[in-house]
């Protein structure tokens, strides 16, 4: 996920994106706990994407 792409989205779209990422993160954590997760690096990628979305969302709130 690119930061430039996130900056083009509205705050509502960013909110839904954040919700989807958090659900994906929860799902990955459950898979890790039940030892069904094959790609452990996915957790870190989702975590970084959540941080990117929160950063862009914060920037948009400050601009408004």
Automatic annotation (TrEMBL):
Q: Which residues form the signal peptide?
A: none
For this UniProt record, give its keywords in alphabetical order, as a comma-separated list. Answer: Ribonucleoprotein, Ribosomal protein
Annotated coiled-coil segments of the chain: none
Short name of any one Pfam family annotated for the protein: Ribosomal_L29
**Keyword Phosphoprotein found:** no
Q: Listed GO molecular functions?
A: structural constituent of ribosome
Q: Name one GO cellular component term.
A: cytosolic large ribosomal subunit
Taxonomic superkingdom? Bacteria
GO BP, one annotated term: translation
Q: Which family does it belong to?
A: Belongs to the universal ribosomal protein uL29 family.
Record-linked PANTHER family: 60S RIBOSOMAL PROTEIN L35/50S RIBOSOMAL PROTEIN L29 (PTHR10916), LARGE RIBOSOMAL SUBUNIT PROTEIN UL29C (PTHR10916:SF0)
Q: Write the protein's name.
A: Large ribosomal subunit protein uL29
Identify the species of origin.
Candidatus Methylopumilus rimovensis
Q: What lineage does UniProt assign to this protein's organism?
A: Bacteria, Pseudomonadati, Pseudomonadota, Betaproteobacteria, Nitrosomonadales
> What is the primary gene name for this protein?
rpmC
